[in-house]
Amino acid sequence: MSPSRIPRHVAIIMDGNGRWARQRGLPRIKGHEAGAESVRAVLRAARESGVKYLTLYAFSSENWVRPPAEVQGLMRLLRKFLREEEDELHANRVRLRAIGRLRDLPPPVRRELKRVMRATESYAARQLILALSYGGRVEIVDAVRSIARKVSEGDLQPGRIQEKTIRAHLYAPDVPDPDLMIRTSGELRLSNFLLWQLSYAELYFTDVLWPDFREEHFRAALEEYARRERRFGDIGAGR
Ligand code: FPP
């Protein structure tokens, strides 16, 4: 694949863990556990393909209403993943980041997350970004609040607010917008994921359930991306 056709940033809605478990007569948490294996596989595939930024929707701001046992199970899984994956992140010089209302996370998860983020913050070549307690509208609300604060303190004039002002107040302002968004399990929705950042992304939907999603599925999505022509409002190459 020509390097220019490799997406710099891929964002993924990892959906279908519950259905995968139900199909096997297993508790939902088993689907999430299998989903964590898919995360490892996709991390490898992204690295091998030359994708620089990978954002994973690991827990949405709406997921808190799930049964407490499932929420606790997911939090436990997240901590386990952070502990077990740290060596791998160092070995491959991957910087871990997180976006979302991280203060909502249980303190032990937040501590582990902050520790690994700090330990990997000097790596520049590749980034893994976990969306945790994340909602796209809430991210915009948080941005608007900090902009409003600057306006009320006299540090910013309303007439000077531009698109780039909003971008600068998002959770990870330096991260380029995703080029490709993948959603698994056949659902055709954005579900409040990266609403600002996905404006021009190519969208790729697959029926594969997240726990079944492996390297070959990720590569198939990149191949489809490479075939698409992105115009950004222009009229295309054949004019
Ligand atoms: C959606 O499936 C998935 C989630 C809400 C959680 C995603 C979490 C993981 C993949 C595992 C842990 C993550 C990391 C980063 C280690 P669903 O439960 O909504 O599935 P359903 O729609 O079939 O019920």
Written description of the protein model:
By secondary structure, the chain is α/β, with parallel strands linked by helices. The protein has helices at residues 17-23, 28-49, 68-91, 107-119, 136-152, 163-168, 215-227, and strands at residues 9-13, 53-60, 94-99, 126-134, 180-183, 202-205. The chain has one domain: Decaprenyl diphosphate synthase-like (Undecaprenyl pyrophosphate synthetase), CATH 3.40.1180. It has 7 helices and 6 strands, in the order E-H-H-E-H-E-H-E-H-H-E-E-H. Strand 3, helix 4 and strand 4 form a beta-alpha-beta unit. Helix 2 (28-49) runs parallel beside helix 3 and helix 3 packs parallel to helix 4. The radius of gyration is 18 Å and the shape is globular. It starts with 8 loop residues before the first strand and ends in a 12-residue tail after the last helix. Bound molecules: farnesyl diphosphate. Farnesyl diphosphate binds at residues 14-19, 32, 35-36, 39, 56, 58, 63, 77-78, 81, 130, 185, 210.
